[in-house]
Design goal:
Elements: H1 4-14, H2 18-25, H3 29-37, H4 47-59, E1 62-65, E2 73-76
């Protein structure tokens, strides 16, 4: 599970537009815009849709940080040497 704010932050880290995320995830750009217009604790819509979005962002190098006392967030994964 991840929030709308985490999804927006992940796109910002990658310098991706909604169109870029749509292309990478297979989710339409209007659907992404609709989901991002709602501010909630988790991305709305179908579980399959949010799963596709999360997988696309993770494949691009984003790591979702769960609520752990410091607040949920996102960061780029460390590159393996």
């Amino acid at each position: 599970m991840f929030s709308v704010r985490q999804m927006k932050a992940a796109r910002a880290l990658l310098a991706w537009s909604q169109g870029d995320l749509a292309e990478a995830s297979g989710v339409s750009e209007p659907t992404i815009a609709r989901l991002e217009s709602e501010d909630g604790e988790q991305v709305g819509g179908r579980a399959e849709t949010s799963g596709k979005l999360k997988v696309a962002l993770e494949k691009a190098g984003v790591e979702f940080i769960p609520e752990n006392g410091g607040g949920a967030g996102v960061r780029m994964k460390k590159r393996k040497r």
